[in-house]
Amino acid sequence: RPECCFSSFRRLDAKAATEKFQQDLGFRMLNCGRTDLINQAIDALGPEGVNTMDDQGMTPLMYACAAGDEAMVQMLIDAGANLDIQVPSSSPRYPSVHPDSRHWTALTFAVLHGHISVVQLLLDAGAHVEGSAVNSGEDNYAETPLQLASAAGNYELVSLLLSRGADPLLSMLEVNGVSSSLHEDMNCFSHSAAHGHRNVLRKLLTQPQQLKGDVLSLEEILAEGVESDTSSQGSSSEGQVRLCKTRMKALQEAMYYSAEHGYVDITMELRALGVPWKLHVWVESLRTTFYQSRYSVVQTLLREFVTIKEEDYNEELVTEGLQLMFEILKTSKNDSINQQLASIFSHCYGSSPIPSIPELRRALPARLDPHFLNNKEMSDVTFLVEGKLFYAHKVLLVTASNRFKTLMTNKTEHNSQSSKTVEISDMKYNIFKMLMQYLYYGGTESMEIPTTDILELLSAASLFQLDGLQRHCEILCAQTISLENSVSIYKYAKIHNAPELASFCEGFFLKHMSSLLEQDSFRQLIYSRTSKVQGLDPLRDLQTALAGRLHSVYVTSRV
Prior knowledge:
Layout: H1 2-6, H2 14-31, H3 38-45, H4 60-67, H5 70-78, H6 106-112, H7 116-124, H8 145-152, H9 155-163, H10 188-194, H11 198-205, H12 218-231, H13 245-260, H14 264-272, H15 279-291, H16 295-304, H17 315-331, H18 335-349, E1 381-385, E2 388-392, H19 394-400, H20 402-414, E3 421-424, H21 429-441, H22 454-463, H23 467-480, H24 486-495, H25 499-511, H26 513-516, H27 520-527, H28 529-533, H29 538-555
Parallel strand pairs: 1-3
Antiparallel strand pairs: 1-2
Helix pairs in contact: 2-3, 4-5, 4-6, 5-7, 6-7, 6-8, 8-9, 8-10, 9-11, 10-11, 10-13, 13-14, 13-15, 15-16, 15-17, 16-18, 17-29, 19-20, 21-22, 22-23, 23-25, 24-25, 25-29
Domain BTB: 379-448
Pfam family, one: BTB
Protein name: ABTB2 protein
């Protein structure tokens, strides 16, 4: 609008305003493309002539390059235009400089707008191929022309700039932590990978590696050696070229950006070159391929998990990686994928033993001499179990647990004929006898419990609220657990509120999941709707258990 265009002139004196009008006229004459007016236009620009800058810090050559006006560019070059002059930082003299164009040169504008013939013309005339990077002053931070061409995916421009010596490893210069908002601090590999320009990335990779600046400190040598060993593991490509330190870092950054933006094919191609996985990159790649239903790539990624160094395991693996992998296990119908997930879970759980179930040191409130066990002569209450009588003593039972106390009280209140017989249904006689042995012996030390009876005794102990006996049965279960009985033990633990035993079973499942997935009983446990009906969610419990294990071994232990 006119009022905006001329508002700045009102603050100027007559002479300065006249010069400003003349300069503005000169720019307008050049920007209209009239090459026949170039001499008059340069005269109108003022004392700096063809290199005069307007309020935006741009010269006539920059405007001509942005417009792609090859004839005007050639004439401005012939008139003595400075090819490598930069857009300055914003100042009172140049109040309208755009933040992202600071330190750009004419070549940068030509590349940004894709004018390859103009780029060729500038380079032939001697423009520096790196733009303002040639003058790396203290406040210099700008994208190089090659970075912009890589981000745009302009293969021809990238090829031309590379042929003229542009360095693909040159990162955007940065000062005092302030960088351009356009692309952040990225190299050419990162720009092409972040935008999915696979052909451009391949072209960049054809450039020979520059070994300059690859002098390492002792710490870097040690780290590089470990990383190089790791990077060669698990990769399917043969005859990998050993990447120098600088290029390896650049490709790791590119791998990060390709994964962040969902270009998995580029990520996998970089991995095939020997670039090692970082945990975040692996998780993001797995997420993308899973949601895209690219199961062959999912399988490849799962196989590659073991190449990630354990020192890289962090909170992201615990909170995001595990959730993703268990989501895949929950929905996948592919046995190979499920087996690979099982191997990862076992690998993450580690070779350390499953934490043991602690004994419950809780003395019974009362005990009688074993001589009184099932003694008819001295009993004051009789139980009927499987048609057989068992003689006991109320004083011992009512102090043993609230369940027995309630049973004795209810029997007395509802039995007007004072019968002393209490019927116990749904329990075997030998199980009830062991229950009584525990009470009369005052503990489990003198008891011999057959392996086949442990689970039923655990159930009985839970029913009659005998915590010490239940815990002893849990420990026996942990000692006798196997692939064949682990599912049954887990179900008993969940039904009878035995969290320590359930946790032990979950550890056993995670350690032996590959073998367990071949069993129908385990597959039914984790996939069947019946488990949901029974209030079981084993996959959620396994994820929680593995998250706790990972957190304690790999995260908390480092703090």
